[in-house]
Amino acid sequence: TLLASSAASDVYKRQIKMGRTIKLILYYFAYQFAVAIPGMFGYTIWKCFETQSFDLHNAPTSLAIILSLLGTLLMAWHLIHYKYVKLDKQTLASLPLKPTCLYILMGAAAIIWMNWLSEMVHLPNIAENVFAQMKNNVFGILSVCIIAPIFEEIFFRGAIEGYLLRKWENPRWAILVSALIFGLIHMNPAQILFAFLFGIILGELYYRTGSLLPSIILHFINNTLSLILMNVFEEKDTLTDILGNTTAVHVWGMTGIAIFCLTFLLFKKEVKPVQWAVEATEPVPAEETNPQN
Q1: At CA 218, angle to CA 213 and CA 219, rounded to 5?
Q2: What is the number of H-type helices and E-type strands within the chain?
Q3: How many whole angstroms separate alpha carbon 262 and alpha carbon 265?
C-alpha cells in the first residue's frame, strides 16, 4: 500500500510538472496559426482580385514554408525572450574532440538503424508530397537543414526536457516524455517512430552535456543527409531500392546497431551527466510571474 501510494504520488507530481510543457506546445501551434491564417487569407484575397477566382489550394509552396518559418521564429523569440531556455556558455558549449567524434559516429550509426527499423515497420508517409516540394525549394532547404535543427533543439531539449530534468527526480522520464512529444508533433506516421527514437538519443546527449550544441549538430546531420539522399536517389524510396536487396538492408541495419551500441557505451564512459539539481533561485519565465503583462 505504501509503495502504491508513493507511485501514485510520483505520477501526480509528474502531471503537475507537465503544465508548462502543455502550455508551450499550445503556444507553438498558436504562433503557427497566427501567422498562417492571415498569411493564406491575404494571399487568397489578392489572387481573388487578380484572377477573379477563389482558390486557396493553389497557394505556392514557398508561401506555406515562409509562413511556417515565421511562426517558428516567433516561437523561438518567445522561448528566449521569456527565458524558458537560456542561451549561454553552458547551453552552447562544445565538447572535446574525443566525445565529439563519439557522438557524431553514434548519431550516424543511429540514423542507419532507425531508418532500417522504420522501413521494417512500414508506417505510411502522409507527408511525402510535402517533402518532394521542399527538397528543391530554397526556403524548404533552409527550414529543414538550418531552422528546424536549431529551433527544435531549443524547444524540445532546452525548454521542455531541460525544465523536466530540473523538476523530476528520474531523468529518464524527462528524456522519454520530451522524445515522445518530439515524435508526435511531427504528425506523420512514417516520422513518429524515427523522431521518438532519435529524440531519446538527442535527449540523452543534452542530459549528459547540458549543451544544446551536440544535439543541434546531430539534428543538422540527420536532416541534411536525408535531404541529400532524397535528391541523389530521387527515384528510390526505400533502403531496399538503394541497396538492392533485403539481405543488404538487414546487414546495414545490424551494423548500425553494433556501431551505435559500442559508441554509446564509450560516450557514457567519457561524458558523465551534468548536475540538474533545482536551484533555490531557479528563474521563472517573466510571463509566469507577471501573467497580466
Answers
A1: 95
A2: 13, 0
A3: 5
Check: CB of residue 157 under 8 Å from CB of residue 178.
Answer: yes
DSSP state string for 107-121: HHHHHHHHHHHHHHH
DSSP string, 17-63: HHHHHHHHHHHHHHHHHHHHHHHHHHHHHHHHHHHS---GGG--HHH
pTM: 0.88
CA distance 132 to 276: 41
Mean pLDDT (the chain) is: 87
pLDDT tens-digit map of 174-225: 999 999 999 999 999 999 999 999 999 999 999 999 999 999 999 999 999 9
The string over 203-238, giving b where at least 16 C-beta atoms fall within 10 Å of a residue's C-beta and e elsewhere, is bbbbbbbbbbbbbbbbbbbbbeebbeebeeeeeeee
User: Cell triple for residue 197?
Assistant: 527514437
**Whose CA is closest to 87, among 142, 162, 182, 195?**
162
CB atoms within 10 A of CB 257: 16
